[in-house]
From TrEMBL:
Residues 1-95 form the HTH hxlR-type domain. Pfam families: HxlR. GO terms for molecular function: DNA binding. It comes from the Bacteria. InterPro entries: HTH_HxlR, WH-like_DNA-bd_sf, WH_DNA-bd_sf. This is Transcriptional regulator, HxlR family. It comes from Trujillonella endophytica.
Amino acid sequence: MLTLVGERWALLVVREVSLGLRRFDELEAATGASRTVLSDRLRRLTEAGVLGTRPYRLPGSRARSEYVLTEAGYDLLPLLAALSDWGERHLGATTQADVVYRHGGCGGRVTARLTCECGAQLAPRERLVAQVNR
């Protein structure tokens, strides 16, 4: 999975689609990625099932595709929130957050937390055991 979302531009593309940008030109302008790189990332994210496409047509032009998050794409939003949260804590003095994630219901800031399947909340410094599945 890191080979996909760890590629330069991939998470930025997912973030921009989650913020409502859907069309190639919008994504190109927002990310600053070259057309070739952006095309490659969109293709790879679509093939992996993170993004889906749907057709649209502007009057007088050919049919095109716009990009939407799939369930797998929505499942990446906690990762984006966690990265934003990390940046606020560790880079806050030197940089301003590009995006702040908020709860649609109350407007409060959303933060990422580690939760065990047993329901226990874990602190980042608690011992975590990584299991490598190969």
